[in-house]
Amino acid sequence: MGSCLSGDRHKRTIPYSEIASTSRDDGVITRRNSKRKITRKGSSPSNDSSREMSLHRIPGRMFLNGTTDHASLFTRQGKKGINQDAMIVWENFVTKEDTIFCGVFDGHGPFGHMVAKKVRDSLPLKLNAQLELDATRKEGQNDARCQVSPPTLVNKGSGTSHCDPDHRGNIYVMLKESFLKAFKVMDKELKLHPYIDCYTSGTTSVALVKQGRDLIIGNVGDSRAVLGTRDKSNSLVAVQLTVDLKPNHPREAERIRLCKGRIFALQNEPEIFRVWLPNNDSPGLAMARAFGDFCLKDFGVIAVPDVSYRHLTEKDEFVVLATDGVWDVLSNEEVVAVVASSPRSSAARVLVDSATRAWRLKYPTAKVDDCAVVCLYLDSNESSATTAKEQEFANDMET
C-alpha cells in the first residue's frame, strides 16, 4: 500500500537542496543554493521537453489511456495526490517488426511522478541500444550460434534456466546482460540528472520485450507481471512471471541488512515492511529495489533488475503488467478473470475499476492508490469476444 513515508506528498522532507519551484509539466525542478553543477552539453528544460515531444510523435508508441490490436492500457489517479504511475506500449519497437516493449512504472516520493515519466521515456531507448550493441559483439564471437532463440526459463523462482543442446543458453545470457546494463545506465543517468531530484524519490519498473514467441522481463520493485494461460485441461489459469521485490523477501532482506539498512513495519501498518536508514527513521521505503532513492543506495536498495525469460506457446493468451495499486487488493487469479471476461478495447480500464472498488471494500479508511495497467495480448488475431470457458472461469472467481 505505502511506498515511501518521507515521500508523503504533503510533507516533502528533502535532506538537501531547498526547492524553489517545481514544474509538473516537464519534470523540472530548480534548486536554490545547490552545489550541483550542470555540465552536460545540451541539458536544459527546453531540450528535455523537445526530446519528450519527439518521442510522443513516434508511431506505435502509446503512453496514455487507449487500446491497440495488441494491447490495452489505462491509468487512474488515486486519492493521494498527483498520479505517480506511468505506462507505455511501444509496438514495432524502434522499427523492429513483431517486437513490442511494454512497461509500468510506479513513482514514489516528492518527485516520483517525474522519475516514473523519465524512466518510461528513457529506459526503452537505453535497452534497445544495449541489445543492439551486445548482439553485434556476440555475433562477432559466436557466429551462427547466436541465431537461435533464447532458452525457456523453467524454474523461475530459482533463477535457473534449462537449455537445449544448441547453445540457447548463450543467447539468454546475452539478453540478461543487456537488461542489466540498460537498467544500470538508467539509474546512473537519474543520479546525475540536473533537473530531477531523486534523493528520496524513485520508481519501480516492470518492463518486457516480446519478439515473436520470446518474452523477456526485467523487474525492479513491487509492480508485477502475470500471465493468463491454459492448463492441461484447457482451463484459464494465472502464472506469476515476476517476484515482488519487497524488503521482507528473504533474499532482499539479507542484502539490505548486510549493507546496514534496517527493515521493520510500523505499528499502524504491520503488514508493510519498509527500509530505513541505519540511524534515522526515514525514508521508510516499501520496496527493496527501485530506480532513484539514492539516500538508500548505500544501504541495500538497488536498481538491478530480476530478469527472466519465457518461450510463449499457443496456450499463453495475455500478460498483465500492473502497479501495486492493483495487486494490493486483487489476486493474480482475480486479475486474470477480469481481463479474460472483458473486451480487449476496455480490459485495462475494467481492471482498474475493479481494483478501485476492491480498495473501497478492503481498506475503507485508506486512500485509494494510483493504478496503471497494461494488458498485452499474445495473439492479436484472436476474437476479443469472451468465450464460454473464460466467462465460466470469471463467474467461479466471483463466487
Task: Describe the model.
The chain is of the alpha+beta class. It has a single domain (5-73, 86-320, 372-384), classed as PPM-type phosphatase domain (Phosphatase 2c, domain 1), CATH 3.60.40. It is 29% helix and 28% strand. It is built from 8 helices and 21 strands. A hairpin with a 7-residue loop joins β15 and β16. Residues 15-54, 141-161 are annotated as: Disordered. InterPro entries: PP2C, PPM-type-like_dom_sf, PPM-type_phosphatase-like_dom.
Q: What keywords describe this structure?
A:
Phosphatase 2c, domain 1, 28% strand, globular, Probable protein phosphatase 2C 33, PPM-type-like_dom_sf, 29% helix, PP2C, alpha+beta, PPM-type_phosphatase-like_dom, six-stranded antiparallel β-sheet, eight-stranded antiparallel β-sheet, 399 residues, 8 helices, protein serine/threonine phosphatase activity
CATH class: Alpha Beta
The parts where pLDDT drops under 50 for at least 5 residues are 7-42, 144-168, 381-395
- Order of H and E elements: EEHEEEEEHEEHEEEEEHEEEEEEHHHEH
Say which CATH homologous superfamily is assigned: PPM-type phosphatase domain
Overall helicity = 25-40%
- Could you name the CATH topology? Phosphatase 2c, domain 1
First and last CA, distance? 26 Å
Number of domains: 1
Mean pLDDT: 82
Query: How many individual β-strands?
Result: 21
Structural class call reads alpha+beta
Apparent shape: globular
Beta-strand fraction estimate: 25-35%
